[in-house]
Design a protein that fits this description.
Layout (H helix, E strand, L loop, with lengths): L4 H23 L6 H26 L6 H28 L9 H9 L1
Helix pairs in contact: 1-2, 1-3, 2-3
């Protein structure tokens, strides 16, 4: 059975955007506990891992259009940003320094 990559990516983009909205709202809660932040991080990581499996499946097909590959990369970026954002909230709550990515490095990776 052929996979409808357009539909799959549209559904995944909608899901990632909904999770992003939920994460934003949750992280704004003034009395968010470390346990709640940890659960939120785990939920985000599960979503990211699920999307990683979709990307792995896409990579097994040679006939994937470049536009679909770019769309998948955009969705993957959403998950990466959510992961770092939730991890940083948890790290700060634990008294640790947030994760920082050098702008120069990320720009090179995107253009490379």
């Amino acid at each position: 059975m052929a996979i409808d990559w357009i539909l799959t990516l549209q559904e995944q983009a909608d899901f990632a955007k909904q999770i992003a909205d939920d994460v934003t709202q949750t992280l704004e809660i003034a009395d968010l506990s470390a346990a709640q932040a940890a659960r939120l991080y785990r939920v985000v990581e599960q979503g990211a891992q699920t999307f990683d499996r979709i990307i792995e499946e896409m990579e097994q097909h040679d006939d994937i259009d470049d536009d679909l590959t770019q769309a998948a990369e955009t969705i993957a970026d959403i998950w990466t940003n959510l992961s770092v954002t939730t991890a940083n909230k948890l790290r700060v709550m634990q008294g640790l320094a947030p994760i920082e990515f050098p702008t120069e490095l990320t720009e090179k990776e995107r253009s490379g």
